[in-house]
Amino acid sequence: MIGGRGFATPDDVKAVALPALRHRVTPTAEAEIEGMTADDLLRSLLDRVPAPRL
Fold it and tell me: Which distant-in-sequence residues (6+ apart) come within 8 Å of 23 by Cβ?
């Protein structure tokens, strides 16, 4: 129902991914030392996964 549609687009998923998933991701000690946050890790994953094509 995002944007008045009956379906979600890849951009819709990216828009809600951080608030929906950040509490599920815990950076390793090494990542924390490098200043990485859960949001940084999630953004990195979202940027690497290609959007499905129909």
Answer: 38
* Span between the terminal Cα atoms of the chain, in Å: 20
pLDDT higher than threshold 90 for residue 53: no
Angle, CA 21 vertex, CA 3 and CA 29 arms, to 5°? 150
CB 25 within 8 A of CB 45: no
The model's pTM = 0.77
CA distance 37 to 26: 8
Instruction: Give the dihedral sign, CA 13/40/51/21.
Output: negative
